[in-house]
């Protein structure tokens, strides 16, 4: 059995354990509900198309063309009664006159009036509300998922140290296989969760009747985000494992994992606070740690040239290779030091396994 | 019968302190080899190096003359001094998992796990989480973890510590059974009486240096001066004046004495017979504790 096969066995166990873990299942369900909520609830609150009662056939067909829910009634009195009973939002009576209870039925009025032609000078520019919500949403999902799953890698390493099974494990398989198995398992789970969120968000947006142009801008951004997420997660995964190995008990994990927590937290805050500043975002989209959020945001805003995401991905991949090597060395150097916290320097110097 | 595991000139330092100094010994297949030494003498470090959990600064470990590689080590069974399994996993799941890490197929791992747990008296507890078991049963699970892949070499660090007497017997049976199959079995212990009862071979280490190694009889011959016991009818105090005799213990008609190199035990016997009947006369086999004391002095 080679390292690859061993890593597969390790990954298999990690996934099985996580799929039975209530915290994991709960967080997945929570995230899904959350993403359903933010896409569907606004649409539900906005209500479906306005319903309108009308007696006149010609008016009815005009209203139908405007995608309104039309109820054809016998006469104007019947139409007014439906409005008063709350069965419809508005009625159009002879005049033509539009009846409604409290709110001005803008859609009905628009359907009946002749609007002047509109020429958009910057047709790609994004709805200001979404322009605010999307970067925040992506940053939020990246931050929480990456943090949560990263911390789980660290925890599972610390648990193996604390329960002392680690010595049996490294006597059976190379430490590298253990590390690879853990990283692979948690990456798959994190990817599955983020992909699920992405699909639910897009499907939800579609169901909620989000503007087609908006979907057009959102889809590539979310697609890229998933790709960036995976590379960005793998980039830090070995570092998470390393800080897990530096701790000998779960209580020490908080302090040993500080540097990696910062690598996740600072880019998150940067994107949140500098999201409106194109120059800052340009730079952030090339810093490997903030790129997973900054680059998809720029793609969404239409600020990134076609080649840019690829360039960033290459940068991230190079960083990932470097961090995996460092993480592996720290991991192997501290894995068998079960007496208290191991310092980075000691772990780096220790030649552990043969 | 069986292959020999050799530790050859292994040295290791931690932070400039030499923990193992040119350690060499053999663990013959088919026998139980006891590894004894005080705490901190270097037993655990040696075993970790055999398993490849720790790298040696110099020296080698060979099995049947071949340098031990990662692939060969995968067929070793190991029980570390610091015991541990996953507390929240069922016994079966974790023993199967460890079997698979040693290269067993899922089916073979499941089959051997079931058989082994039955053999160790854990059959009925197989589906329970480790943390729910008594300490004794956790130890048995640990034994199963070391044996699930039918190891070709067994290395056990203090396998008897913390075992209840019943579990000790189970462990002894299991080790003997493995040795009978030709497997080299090395285990450390500071319960010298137990080692004495079990072991064919001994390795004694002190301060990172092997002080003695070999089969029990030859170690005795080599490391303890010839000692005799004699029982006569009258007082045996006269022995004091025999040439070459150092009286160790005198209790009326019974005496224990050492003989100087070159002194003839038969002359002492004749001298005793001249004084009256001799009820018993023979060499005293020194206990392991005595050998150990002698060797590490």
What does this protein look like?
Chain A has 354 residues and is mainly alpha-helical. In chain A, a hairpin with a 3-residue loop joins strand 3 and strand 4 (97-100). Chain A folds into two domains: 6-42 and 125-349, no CATH class; 51-104, no CATH class. Chain A has 15 helices and four strands. Chain A is elongated, with a radius of gyration of 28 Å. With 297 residues, chain B is of the alpha/beta class. Chain B has helices at 43-51, 70-73, 91-101, 106-119, 135-147, 165-180, 192-198, 216-223, 265-274, 288-296; strands at residues 5-14, 17-27, 32-36, 58-63, 66-67, 76-79, 153-156, 185-188, 201-206, 209-215, 227-232, 245-251, 254-259, 278-283. In chain B, the strands form three sheets. Chain B has a six-stranded mixed beta sheet, with helices on both faces. A four-stranded antiparallel beta sheet of chain B has the order 2-1-4-5, covered by helices on one side. In chain B, helix 3 crosses helix 4 (106-119). The mean pLDDT of chain B is 88. At the A-B interface, helix 1 and helix 7 of A face helix 1 and helix 3 of B.
Chain-wise SSE layout:
The complex is a heterodimer of chains A (354) and B (297).
Chain A: H1 3-19, H2 22-46, E1 51-54, H3 57-65, E2 69-72, H4 76-85, E3 90-93, E4 97-100, H5 106-112, H6 128-162, H7 166-172, H8 175-207, H9 212-246, H10 250-256, H11 258-274, H12 278-284, H13 291-300, H14 308-334, H15 344-349
Parallel strand pairs in A: 1-2, 1-3
Antiparallel strand pairs in A: 3-4
Chain B: E1 5-14, E2 17-27, E3 32-36, H1 43-51, E4 58-63, E5 66-67, H2 70-73, E6 76-79, H3 91-101, H4 106-119, H5 135-147, E7 153-156, H6 165-180, E8 185-188, H7 192-198, E9 201-206, E10 209-215, H8 216-223, E11 227-232, E12 245-251, E13 254-259, H9 265-274, E14 278-283, H10 288-296
Parallel strand pairs in B: 3-8, 3-9, 6-7, 7-8
Antiparallel strand pairs in B: 1-2, 1-4, 4-5, 9-10, 11-13, 11-14, 12-13
